[in-house]
Amino acid sequence: MKKKWIIAISVTVAIVGLVLLLAFTVFSLKSITLDFRTSTQYITATNEEIIKSGKFKMGGSVLIHGKNKYIKNLENYNPYIKVINIETVFPSSFVVHLAERQEVYAIEFEGG
């Protein structure tokens, strides 16, 4: 009976420790860098504007961020950008791998 209590307390302490570790500031998002895999001929926004358009939550844990919403935000704000992926670089940063979208066809409209 005493061994069961020791095991139960050990598991509880381990779970609480894991939660504290995830919430600890070591794993909070502190920096975001952009890595362009192609040219940036048609991209007129600066790196700061692109990062701001992603609406990243600075300070949250990098382990539990939902990256799909950041990809959607980046691609909606910047029509010439295609996000390849968002890489987590431990302990506290993201690297956003980007490519410039290629023009497939163009339609002439009112002289433009």
Give a quick set of tags describing it.
3-stranded mixed β-sheet; 112 residues; alpha+beta; 3 strands
Folded structure, characterized:
This protein is of the alpha+beta class. The chain is built from three helices and three strands, in the order αβααββ. The protein has helices at residues 2-23, 47-53, 67-77, and strands at residues 31-36, 81-89, 93-100. Strands 1-3-2 form a three-stranded mixed beta sheet, with helices on one face. A hairpin with a 3-residue loop joins β2 and β3. The longest helix is centred in the N-terminal third of the chain and has 22 residues, at 2-23.
Task: Give me a quick take on this structure.
With 112 residues, the protein is an alpha+beta fold.
List the helices and strands and how they pair.
Blueprint: H1 2-23, E1 31-36, H2 47-53, H3 67-77, E2 81-89, E3 93-100
Parallel strand pairs: 1-3
Antiparallel strand pairs: 2-3
